[in-house]
Design a protein that fits this description.
By secondary structure, the chain is of the alpha+beta class. It folds into 2 domains: 167 residues, no CATH class; 75 residues. It contains 11 helices and 5 strands, in the order E-H-E-H-H-E-E-H-H-H-E-H-H-H-H-H. It has a 5-stranded antiparallel beta sheet with strand order 1-5-2-4-3, sandwiched between helices. A hairpin with a 3-residue loop joins strand 3 and strand 4. Helix 1 runs antiparallel to helix 7, helix 4 crosses helix 5 and helix 9 packs across helix 11. The longest helix has 21 residues. The protein is elongated, with a radius of gyration of 20 Å. The two termini are 36 Å apart.
Length: 257
């Protein structure tokens, strides 16, 4: 299977792409939608309950969640939908097993077990190394769609469908993300007389490595054996990783919910 992703500026564009992906023969269990949304507590507060019914209980709660997630509008993917509170991001609606499993790796309420089960069924697994890009998109009010195509032909058609719906591919999203950070990172790195132009590729790889769910919050000494397995440790390597850790701490603190 091949992973196909797209980031949309609006939820309506993302929802439009879902029907196109399904029309290509991609089953719902292989499609996920991530979009900024309400927390479960906010959903509870929007529910009108009877005197004998506690907030968040019974059919009233189920109906409110359904409405909040756009289920009636056809945006649901199967019956799987979750309202998640993601550190550094805020409230997110994860619609479909793929979306819930991906965010579950970031410490959300779905947990790692769901992610592992989805990975086993999809073969290649979820794009965990790009989780920071999805999080950044969600912080900026954008929505993301992730789908698993059966083969190259279906994946090509799926990418075309996402573009027609207004999506940016993940490579473009990644370059735009780095472009917003690059100048500040260059200035900080060159303070010590180092050449950012020469060292940027290695610096950037390690910066991004620090954002992987398996590395987040871990000091360089903790992950050094794993990181240096296929790389030589140099100044750019270490500085990039440490700056990535600092970036992750900063966005979580600024967007604390």
């Amino acid at each position: 299977m091949e992973i196909v992703t797209g980031v949309f500026r609006s939820r309506s564009e993302a929802e439009q792409s879902l029907s196109l992906l399904r029309s290509l023969g991609i089953p719902e269990e292989r499609i996920g939608l991530l979009t900024p949304g309400m927390t479960n507590r906010q959903v509870e507060r929007s529910v009108r309950t009877t005197d004998s019914e506690e907030p968040g209980m019974g059919k009233a709660m189920g109906g409110a969640v359904g409405a909040a997630l756009g289920v009636a509008g056809g945006a649901s993917l199967g019956a799987a939908a979750a309202s998640l509170l993601i550190p550094g991001v805020g409230p997110v609606l994860a619609i479909g097993l793929v979306g819930a499993a991906l965010l579950g790796t970031g410490g959300a309420v779905t947990g790692a077990a769901l992610g592992e089960s989805i990975e086993e069924g999809l073969g290649e697994g979820l794009p965990h190394e790009d989780l920071y890009l999805f999080e950044d998109a969600l912080r900026r009010g954008h929505s993301a769609v992730i789908a698993f195509a059966e083969d190259g032909s279906q994946s090509d058609r799926a990418r075309e469908a996402l573009v027609r719906s207004g999506a940016e591919d993940l490579d473009t999203v990644r370059e735009n993300w780095w472009a917003r950070l690059r100048e500040d990172e260059r200035k900080k790195y060159e303070t010590g007389g180092r050449s950012f132009e020469r060292d940027e590729p290695n610096y950037r790889r390690r910066f991004q490595a620090a954002l992987h769910p398996k590395m987040r919050g871990k000091a360089f000494a903790e992950v050094e054996p794993e990181l240096k397995a296929d790389n030589d440790i140099d100044a750019a390597f270490r500085h990039g990783y440490e700056r990535g850790l600092s970036y992750q701490r900063t966005v979580v603190e600024i967007h604390k919910v």
